[in-house]
Structure formats: structure tokens, C-alpha cells
Specification:
By secondary structure, the protein is mostly helical. The protein has 25 helices and 6 strands. The chain folds into 2 domains: 320 residues, no CATH class; 127 residues, no CATH class. Helix content is 66%, strand content 5%. Strands 3-4-6-5 form a 4-stranded mixed β-sheet.
Length: 491
């Protein structure tokens, strides 16, 4: 019976792997998920290629503002320097990050006593939900820090009493922090594991290593950016969030689990495993990893503009927890949990298939090409909601992140004045948006999410739409709406 259950789990894992490869083969041709968020990563890397490490909030290049840590876009900048197409560099970084993530998850499970076949199957199930698959389909900063986190945990689990292992784990967590600030939650999991398992001296030693690494990383970033990074992060990190937003973080997290429905079975199984844990819960890495990952994700969802991609750490921790729990129990509970994991993997195929048939086929690469052809008779500075478009046009993006622009402008309305003047004087040769501001949804989007109040009035008073490539009205996938100055149209 156990062999049958393991066979079902491996079959589910194989199906998830096949579905993921199918989606990758489609999305890397269509660029369906290279939206404005991916564009921000490309823009940060492009700035670095031109010698600008964290552009100021406003300066000669235009507008900055980001809450992204630097390691991912530093690596992306290096790959963009050797790749002909920045998109190729982005997909290469995503692939390398996912390979490291899966290798780290497998190593962590093996260090925690999970047998090979179970570890292989559960490792692949990390990719089952949308948050697990999109790390391969787009360019974002989630996979690399998650990979560094699990590698650090694997090192601590394998050699908790070795100073060199704790130092290596602290280094990996420092790198994870340099890729995504909230990844530092894993230091709490390791510290509690060492402390509660009777290794008080090692716990303090590890904490000192991590603190030293984080301080050095912060000092290096501040020095390299000439102090701009601190200013930019201070203005952008909360994304315009309020205490009410942070109080509603659990509700937001549950709502996003409803969007990424495939993660719900894994999360429920992990919570159930916590209540049925065979031993002292807070003396083991797997439960502490899951609890701290959930806590960190809740903190992230207190900030507006965050999406289901941040559920990746929860999925990794949930699958790891289940694999360890199955390996610790015997009889029917182990069989039931193994079969439940297999069912969760098979259930994840349905939303993945729907996305493959709808969202994955959005021809964003073709839209980029059509937009660039439409703009070729009108050379000059482009204002684009997606910063990737100006990069493809061999320009430096004027606006780094339209969401952060709106968040900062709501606190300081004068922040938007230079952009409003540029629009009024028609300094941009074209304005390219991912939504149609003439629609009800578009007007809400450009008032409440991107650019903010006053943008549509400044745009429509001085520019007219000349090309609209619609997106998917069900998923609100990005299209393109191209605006040219009115003087061009009057000639």
C-alpha cells in the first residue's frame, strides 16, 4: 500500500513537471507574464548597466522609487551585458534560480531524514501552484531568495553543531536578505531551532554571524548607491500601506490563496500536520520554517500592491513540512498524507491548464513588436507603464515604477509636478499604457493603482490614442494603448 501511495505521489509530481514545462515552452515564446513588475526588475538592471545603482526618487533620468533589494537585479544586469535580448537574460536568471531552489529543497528534505523518492516527489510539488510556476514564466525576485533560504536551512539541519556550517548558513541568509529583505525571517527559524534544541551558544553565535552579515550588506549597498538606496527604500518600502492595511493582511493572504487556488490544499495539509506533529514542535526546523514563512508573508501582505507570487515561501515550507511529517509517522496517517499530497498535485493541474489556455497565450512579444513599429516614425522619449518597452527601444526608462510613483505622490503631491509638466508640454514622443484609460476599469487603475489622481486628465488633455491592442477582459491581462502628442495628429 505504501508503494502504491508513493507511486501516486511520483505520478502527480511527473504531471506537475510536465505541465510546468508545457507552460514554459509557451510563455517564453509569448512573454505573456512580462508585465510592468518584470519591467521594473529589467529597469533596475538596465540602470546598473549604465552605472546607476538605485536612481534617486527624481533626477536627470526621471523617476525612481522601488522596494526591491539589489542582488537579483545585479545578477540580471550581468546577464543582460552578455545577452542580445534582455528577455533572454531574464529567463536564464529565472531558470538558474529555480534549479537552485529545487536543489535546495531536496537537500533540506534529505538533511531532515526524508527518503529519496519522497524527497524527489515533494520537491517537484513546490511547482504545483501558480506561485510556484510563475517563477519560471516571468522575471521576478522571488525564486532566488527562496532558494538561498532553503540552502541555508539545509546547511543548518545537516551540521547544526559546526561553526563553519552556521557561518555558511549566515552568509546564505545575508545573500537572501540582499535579494529580498523579508527573507530574513529564516534567521528566526534557525535561531529558535538552535535555542530550543539546547544549543544556546550556537544560537547566539549564529545570530551574531547574521547580524554582522546584514550590517555589512546594508553598508555596502549604501556606499555603492551614495546613500540613495536608503532614501529610496524609506520612501517606498511600505508601498503606501497604513495600519489598517497591515491589520487586514490575513484576509488579503486568504483572498490571494483563493486566486492561487492550488496552494490551498498544501497549506491546509501543513496546518493539520502541525497539530499532529509527532514530537516537540518547536525543536525542529520544518515546523519553525513553516510558521516563520507564514508570519513573514503576512507582513508582506500588509503592504498594498503585493500579489500571490509572495506565497512561494509558504508553498516551499508547507511541502517540506509535509514531507518530514510523512517520514516521521507510520501506518495509515502516512498513507493518507502521501495520497493527499498526490491529490493536491493533481488538483493543481486544473488551474494551470486553464492558465495555459488563456493567460499563457497572450502574445505580449508580438505586442511589444507592434508597439515599437508604431513608434518608429516618432523618435523621442517614451513614457511607458512597462519599463521594459523603452529598454527594447534602446532607451533608459523615464519612470521606474508607476505603482510606487502613485504611492509616493499620495504622500507628497508635489512629487508628481515634473511629470505633469512633461505631459502638458508634450515632451514625450509617446505614452504607452497597459490598460485602456477610456474604460471603467482603466480609469480606476490609473487613479487608484498606477500614476494616481490627475494622470488621466493630464494625459487626455495633451495626447490622443492612436493604437489599442486589447488584453484579456476576463483576466485583465496587459494590452497596449499608445498615445501620441496632439500636435502630431494635427499635422
Amino acid at each position: 500500500m505504501m508503494k502504491y501511495s508513493r507511486g501516486c505521489l511520483l505520478l502527480a509530481a511527473a504531471a506537475v513537471a510536465a505541465m510546468t514545462l508545457l507552460r514554459v515552452s509557451m510563455c517564453w515564446r509569448t512573454d505573456a507574464y512580462l508585465d510592468h513588475v518584470a519591467g521594473v526588475w529589467f529597469a533596475l538592471a538596465d540602470d546598473l548597466r549604465h552605472g546607476i545603482f538605485y536612481r534617486p526618487l527624481y533626477g536627470p533620468l526621471g523617476y525612481g522609487g522601488t522596494r526591491y533589494a539589489p542582488l537579483v537585479f545585479i545578477l540580471l544586469a550581468g546577464l543582460m551585458s552578455v545577452a542580445r535580448d534582455p528577455r533572454l537574460a531574464g529567463y536564464a536568471l529565472s531558470l538558474l534560480s529555480v534549479v537552485l531552489l529545487l536543489g535546495g529543497v531536496y537537500a533540506l528534505m534529505r538533511a531532515l531524514g526524508v527518503d529519496r523518492l519522497l524527497a524527489v516527489g515533494c520537491t517537484i510539488l513546490v511547482l504545483a501552484p501558480q506561485s510556484g510556476q510563475q517563477i519560471l514564466l516571468t522575471v521576478r525576485g522571488d525564486a532566488l531568495p527562496a532558494a538561498l533560504v532553503v540552502c541555508s536551512l539545509a546547511l543548518c539541519a545537516a551540521m547544526p553543531d559546526r561553526t563553519i556550517a552556521l557561518g555558511g548558513a549566515a552568509l546564505l541568509l545575508t545573500l537572501a536578505f540582499s535579494a529580498k529583505v523579508t527573507s530574513l525571517y529564516a534567521a528566526g527559524a534557525v535561531f529558535l531551532f538552535l535555542l530550543l534544541s539546547g544549543r544556546r551558544r550556537r544560537a547566539i553565535q549564529f545570530l551574531i554571524f547574521v547580524a554582522a552579515g546584514v550590517l555589512m550588506a546594508c553598508a555596502a549597498v549604501d556606499f555603492a548607491s551614495h546613500g540613495r538606496a536608503y532614501e529610496v527604500m524609506q520612501a517606498s518600502v511600505a508601498g503606501g500601506g497604513t495600519w489598517a492595511d497591515f491589520a487586514s493582511a490575513p484576509e488579503r493572504m486568504l483572498n490571494l490563496m483563493g486566486v492561487d487556488m492550488a496552494i490551498l490544499p498544501f497549506f491546509v495539509l501543513a496546518v493539520a500536520a502541525l497539530f499532529a506533529w509527532p514530537g516537540k514542535l518547536f525543536r525542529e526546523i520544518a515546523p519553525l520554517f513553516f510558521l516563520t514563512a507564514v508570519a513573514a508573508t503576512l507582513a508582506i501582505y500588509g503592504s498594498p500592491g503585493t500579489d500571490f507570487n509572495h506565497l512561494l515561501d509558504v508553498q516551499v515550507a508547507a511541502v517540506t513540512l509535509m514531507a518530514v511529517w510523512i517520514s516521521r509517522v507510520e501506518g495509515r496517517p502516512s498513507l493518507f498524507a502521501t495520497q493527499a499530497l498526490a491529490i493536491a498535485g493533481f488538483l493543481a493541474l486544473s488551474p494551470a491548464w486553464l492558465a495555459y489556455r488563456r493567460a499563457d497565450i497572450v502574445p505580449e512579444r508580438q505586442r511589444f513588436a507592434m508597439t515599437l513599429r508604431a513608434l518608429s516614425p516618432h523618435p523621442g522619449l517614451i513614457l511607458s507603464e512597462n519599463p521594459l518597452l523603452p529598454i527594447l527601444a534602446h532607451q533608459e526608462p523615464y519612470l521606474l515604477d508607476p505603482f510606487m510613483f502613485r504611492a509616493i505622490m499620495e504622500r507628497d503631491p508635489s512629487f508628481a509636478d515634473p511629470l505633469w509638466r512633461m505631459l502638458e508640454k508634450r515632451k514625450f514622443s509617446a505614452v504607452v499604457l497597459e490598460k485602456d484609460p477610456a474604460t471603467r476599469y482603466g480609469r480606476w487603475w490609473y487613479t487608484s493603482m498606477h500614476f494616481g489622481p490627475g494622470f488621466i486628465e493630464a494625459l487626455e488633455g495633451n495626447y490622443r490614442p492612436v493604437l489599442h491592442i486589447p488584453g484579456d477582459p476576463v483576466y485583465h491581462t496587459q494590452g497596449e494603448t499608445v498615445f501620441l502628442p496632439r500636435r502630431h495628429l494635427s499635422k
